[in-house]
Design a protein that fits this description.
The complex is a heterodimer. Chain A is α/β, with parallel strands linked by helices. Chain A has two domains: 156 residues, 3-Layer(aba) Sandwich (Rossmann fold), CATH 3.40.50.1100; 218 residues, Rossmann fold (3-Layer(aba) Sandwich), CATH 3.40.50. Chain A contains 16 helices and 14 strands. In chain A, helix 5 runs parallel beside helix 7. Chain A is globular. By secondary structure, chain B is of the alpha/beta class. Chain B has a single domain, classed as Alpha-Beta Barrel (TIM Barrel). Helices cover 49% and strands 14% of the residues of chain B. Chain B contains twelve helices and nine strands. Chain B has a nine-stranded parallel beta sheet. The radius of gyration of chain B is 17 Å and the shape is globular. Classes of the chains: A alpha/beta, B alpha/beta.
Chain lengths: 404, 265
């Protein structure tokens, strides 16, 4: 890491490395593009007018700041830590993804790009991308695994309503990682007018840094809201992790506050000891894919294996490089929660709090359920409720053997 | 000097252009892919051998499918190196360049990989997702062991990018003639020619054009403006469509012969 070695917040270095992770592992054909993106992003980051526009739209289009909600009933039910929810599920489009979509499309506009592409798994990032493209009147093409197109019809329809073109990807295993490969391939061939709007804190530098900085609006708001409500910092933060964008946005502003514990909750699928999970840290090992060095699910020959999770948004065989570094540094504790535990948490939150969460933050909530009871009552725990569950009712109904 | 340098020196002395072929190790199976290498070596000056990977982000559908066929048949980096070993036991002269992605190499172990490449007679490496910025982990080790670390150059590279790449390149320069992935549309030889001419003023390395060169006509036009050409997807397509036919060797030999004739005519 460059400069301040006492800080966890100074990364990445000038080549995009977080310790041994990150970087720009891309074909030479992509290098000129990502160097351009880096230049444009850094210019935007240092421009007050850019942030003024971002925050104005974040307020009026997204609905920020998202509330910090004291979950009184959860707290009483669990009988331990005082639990708060950071309610990013109330954002326009129903999840935190819109935060980095707004930021990136403003960067794309500064670059003079006239076409936006994106990859999507469950379709949440695709919907958020299509939304900002409609807002700024830019044509939008979303690459989506053919299998996911089948599984996520409502989101495919939403994207189309918003004016996006959805391209089913049949290469490889026809899922999210292949959609990302295909988006990268398309980008290389359409450099001159196209911006690739990546959906998480992954990919080649500067994407992990850029997406983190846009998502940090979550943690920054929380700091201020905590100061007002409790007059102090929280004791622990909990967030689910697929690629890791909502967790990074929550954690990053607190990384140097040593009193704040952080828990990243990976999708354990059928269990990390099985081969059906999406826990890249607990069940994978360091490798290189999609332009970055990080942890990936892979076999002994270095071939990437399929992820599995009940939650399509966590169903990715890798994780953002800054998480890989924080894992090695032990600054954040990474745990995993199974499909079944997440489903139970989903049901509990709906009945207890009157909030139907997305299956992604249901993983975070499952960790809250496990740990909060044994913590003292003055322990303040904040969970990022990063998405709402409307999109998941079909999956959940199927799991519960209910026909709707 | 390794076999690549010797090869280009001889071609230059004879006023000839290089034919470089690309096929995937283990496609359609390991035994046949070895036979294919022997067949192609009768015509090709340099053999590029693909190391299969699940997520080849710079490759088009044809080469992606070849990699998946190889993986489905059980090909690994270890068995890819075994194919090289078997080839070398019968062919001591044709330069071999392994082309692929970094993750399998990383899991194999970079040091072990370079040592094995040296021992088995690999002459060059193209690791697609290792740009100069990330090369510290592997390129110096390769070059210390007389294995060229071959660099890709693109039409979108500006002068500062070109300087960066020329500063670290060895073996030959692989000029990506169309911005995009392998196996796509053909490039305009005039545009490519002008760029290659300006590159050649700045380096003594041979410049070989690849991506989008399929037919003898493409080959001829590109060879006129470069020191050689790479043909991959078109050959892999022949392998893919061979199916149960027993004429694969003959078909490939004829295809390579036609390409060679076009660039040497």
């Amino acid at each position: 890491m460059k400069t301040n070695t006492n800080s966890y917040r100074s990364g990445p270095d000038e080549n995009g490395h977080f310790g041994a992770y990150g970087g720009r592992y891309v074909a030479e054909t992509l290098m000129p593009l990502i160097l351009d993106v880096e230049k444009a992003w850094h210019a935007a980051r240092d421009d007050d007018a850019f942030w003024k526009e971002f925050h104005a739209l974040a307020a009026d289009f997204i609905g920020r700041p998202s509330p910090l909600y004291y979950a009184k009933k959860t707290t009483e039910h669990l009988g331990g830590a005082k639990v708060y929810f950071k309610r990013d599920e109330l954002n326009h489009t129903g999840a935190h993804k819109i935060n980095h979509c707004l930021g990136q499309i403003l960067v794309a506009r500064r670059m003079g790009k006239t076409r936006i592409i994106a990859e999507t798994g469950a379709g949440q990032h695709g919907v958020a991308t299509a939304t900002v493209c409609a807002l700024f009147d830019l044509p939008c093409t979303v690459f989506m695994g053919a299998e996911d197109v089948e599984r996520q019809k409502p989101n495919v329809f939403r994207m189309k309503l918003l004016g996006a073109e959805v391209i089913p990807v049949t290469s490889g295993s026809s899922t999210l990682k292949d959609a990302m490969n295909e988006a990268l391939r398309y980008w290389v061939a359409n450099v001159h007018d196209t911006y690739y709007l990546i959906g998480t804190v992954a990919g080649p530098h500067p994407y992990p840094e850029m997406v983190r900085d846009f998502q940090s609006v979550i943690g920054n708001e929380l700091r201020e809201q905590m100061r007002q409500k409790e007059g102090r910092l929280p004791d622990s933060l909990v967030a689910c992790i697929g690629g890791g964008s909502n967790a990074m946005g929550l954690f990053h502003p607190f990384l140097d506050d040593s009193g704040v514990k952080m828990y990243g909750v990976e999708a354990g699928g059928h269990g990390v000891m099985t081969n059906k999970h999406a826990a890249s840290l607990s069940g994978g090992k360091p490798g290189v894919l999609h332009g970055m060095k990080s942890y990936f699910l892979q076999n002994d020959d270095g071939q990437i294996t399929e992820a599995h999770s009940i939650s399509a948004g966590l169903d990715y065989p890798g994780i953002g490089p800054e998480h890989a570094w924080l894992y090695d540094e032990k600054r954040v504790e990474y745990v995993s929660v199974t499909d079944d535990e997440a489903l139970e948490a989903f049901k509990l939150m709906a009945k207890l709090e009157g909030i139907i969460p997305a299956l992604e933050p249901s993983h975070a909530f499952a960790h809250v359920i496990k740990t909060a009871p044994s913590l003292p009552k003055d322990h303040i725990m904040v969970m990022n409720l990063c998405g709402r569950g409307d999109k998941d009712i079909f999956t959940v109904a199927e799991k519960l053997n209910v026909t709707i | 000097m390794n076999r690549i340098d010797t090869c280009f020196s001889a071609l230059k002395a004879a006023g000839k252009k290089a034919l470089v072929t690309f096929t995937m190790a283990g496609d359609p199976d390991e035994k046949t892919s070895l036979e294919i290498l022997h067949t192609l070596a009768q015509k090709a000056d340099i053999l590029e051998i693909g190391m299969p990977f699940t997520d080849p982000m710079a490759d088009g559908p044809v080469i992606q499918a070849a990699g998946l066929r190889a993986l489905a048949g059980g090909t690994t980096l270890k068995s890819t190196l075994f194919i090289v070993q078997q080839f070398r036991s019968k062919n001591k002269d044709t330069p071999i360049v392994l082309m692929g992605y970094f993750n399998p190499v990383l899991q194999y172990g970079v040091d072990k990989f370079i040592n094995d490449c040296k021992e088995l007679g690999v002459d060059g490496l193209i690791i697609v997702d290792i740009p100069p910025e990330e090369a510290g982990e592997i390129a110096p080790k390769a070059q210390q062991n007389n294995i060229a670390f071959i660099r890709l150059l693109t039409p979108t590279a500006d002068q500062s990018r070109l300087d960066k790449i020329l500063g670290v390149a060895s073996g030959f320069l692989y000029y990506v003639s169309v911005a995009g992935i392998t196996g796509t549309a053909s490039a305009d030889p005039k545009v490519v020619g002008a760029h290659i001419a300006s590159i050649k003023k700045q380096t003594s390395l041979p410049v070989v054009a690849g991506f989008g060169i399929k037919t003898p006509q493409d080959a001829k036009a590109m060879a006129a403006v470069a020191d050689g050409i790479v043909v991959g997807s078109a050959l892999v397509q022949t392998i893919e469509s061979a199916g149960e036919k027993h004429t694969l060797a003959k078909d490939l030999e004829e295809q390579a012969a036609a390409l060679l004739e076009a660039i040497r005519a």
